[in-house]
Amino acid sequence: MKELEYPFDSEYVLKKSKKIKRQLLEEGGNFLSKKIAVLGGSTTHDIIRVLEVFLLNQGIRPVFYESEYAQYWQDAMFDNPELVNFAPDMIYIHTSNRNITGYPGVTDQAEQIDALLEEQFEHFSVMWDKLAGQYHCPIIQNNFEYPFYRILGNQEAVYIQGRISFINRLNEKFYQYAREHNNFFIHDINYAAAAYGLDKWSDPFYWHMYKYAMCMQAIPEFAYNLSNIIKSVFGKNKKSLVLDLDNTLWGGIVGDDGVENLEIGQETSMGQVYSEFQGYVKAQKDIGVMLNIASKNEYDNAVAGLNHPDGILKPEDFILIKANWEPKSRNIVEIASEMDILTDSLVFVDDNPAEREIVSTQVKGVSVPAIGTPEQYIRVLDHAGFFEVTKLSDDDTKRSEMYQANVKRKQQQQNFGDYREYLLSLDMKGTIKPFEAVYMARIAQLTNKSNQFNLTTRRYTQSDVEQFAGSSDYITRYGKLEDKFGDNGVVSVVIGRKGSMTDMSVYRIGERVTSASGNDVLHLELWLMSCRVLKRDMESAMLDSMVEACKECGIRTIMGYYYPTAKNAMVKDFYDTMGFTKICEQEDGNTVWQFDIPDAYEKKNTVITVNV
Q: By CB atoms within 10 Å of each CB, which of 317, 475, 520, 537 scores lowest?
């Protein structure tokens, strides 16, 4: 919804949130339902009201638990029955500098201040440990914003007695905890307050009148920033920037002005603006954002512009360069198709409002931010949070390289008339093993990102994944794949629960069996794979590994489940192709499949050399 895209009108969002919510629900969609507990150190009702519409717009339908005013610590530590029964999928702790119960005095010595710092930190850390151990779900915690006044003036951050110094040290302890604990994320309200304007953000009127930790007008900015963390944790991030060239990556029109007359580099103020923007885009690639071009240009002119000696982005930074005179909407659809991702994974960046309007109306799901003038490009894209980082794995930093290799694979495929010969030419090597600690974060990330090849659409946190790995009731496998073009990283995950045939009736969307009533059947609770390795026999290799594990456990039957969504129709008949027999189909399209393992099972994978 355009009204919720950054930069949005905060006053409008505040006034029309109920109308916006109603409209989003009426439009429907394939919402991901999540239960979010909000534990507040100040008033949270309006935060929840606005947060809900941003999450709905990002494809998440939240159900909220809200603590009583300032009861965040009591709810966490004393097992409020309502919170326990709510069983949250995520916990958000909304505290601010108003919840720091003790600050240093001007005459305090270093030892006293250190002790006070530990006391304040422990108040929070024992709560986090308790919540993590009890609920096994992601936790989001605000850091602390600066106070709106400075007793020590400009030395407030210098002297250890200053409140800014104290908050900086306390925030650093929060950050260290986040670095050492998975599924714990910081909501950086210190940055948000600074970006909004600390004097306006911390207007004391709203605290004393309503017990709000910020002014009412800042709530939409606050809620939007928080929603970016939540949607990232639950796999709703965008994946790729699709960029225009002329007057977007440089000033001028390369075909008319010539490469030598483009504004880029340090010679002019506008050249510096475009250079800074190119540097920002290049940094996005380093965190795993895939870069592509959709430009109305001659291809040779586009490449010449990207090779400008003062340019930061070069042709090799991009996976696909669509520089032609076709409609950009068509080029964007082709980019998504060639990369095997959905169009709702793309963000289109173009200086031309007319081109933006065409793309936004013609390409379903693509994000098209109104980027403003060149000086505003970075601010708009950065605050929009399309690529919010909650976990940064090796696979993320190598993603562009992996997709570029995939393009080369497709090009090589055109040289082969026989598909199996093409697969053999890739010299593929796979690693398929039970879940290992080093890959837990990546496995959890995949469960929240994979949509097209996710047969049951289940999403798991890292805590869930670790529980599966440590339970004798489950058989788990992850799969890595590499070939002569490069390493694809972890690309497939299978989770099977040991049970009996009578368990079959309880497998429905959003439910999981928690106790085993037998051990002669394996129920596949999750089977997913990255679409960039589809139809390369990795799915066969994963089944071979699961069959081998089943035979070792005396399991002779594997049950597969398919739950249809708007995005996974491509795997509707997957089990059929793998030799399963359909034994049940419900009115909603859910299907159940059975595979009886023969005594003389013949491996299905014939092209990948598998390391186990």
A: 520
Residue pair 426/409 in contact (Cβ under 8 Å)? The answer is: yes
pTM score over 0.70: yes
Of 138, 141, 143, 142, nearest in space to 60 by CA: 138
With both helix axes pointing from N to C terminus, report the angle between 219-233 and 189-196 in degrees, rounded to the nearest 10.
140
Q: Report the C-alpha gap between 279 and 246 in whole angstroms.
A: 16
Extract the tokens encoding 395.
């696979």
Q: How far apart are CA 221 and CA 521, in angstroms?
A: 50
Q: Say what the pLDDT of residue 609 is.
A: 94
Distance of CA 186 to the CA centre of its chain: 15
Q: What is the pLDDT of residues 450-474, one digit of tens each?
A: 667 889 988 888 888 999 999 999 9
DSSP 182: T
Greater model confidence, 182 or 11: 11
3-state secondary structure (DSSP) of residue 477: strand
Pair of tokens at residue 181: 């604990």
Q: Are the beta carbons of 171 and 188 closer than 8 angstroms?
A: no
List the structure tokens of 148: 């709106």
Q: Tell me: the pLDDT tens digits for 153-163?
A: 999 999 999 99
Q: Find, among 273, 149, 132, the residue nearest to 204 by Cα.
A: 149
Segment holding 582, helix H or strand E: strand 581-585
358 sits in which H/E element:
helix 353-362
Helix (H, G, I), strand (E, B) or coil at 297: coil
Torsion on CA atoms 467, 236, 407, 539, rounded to nearest 10? 30
Q: What is the pLDDT of residues 561-584, one digit of tens each?
A: 999 887 788 889 999 999 999 998
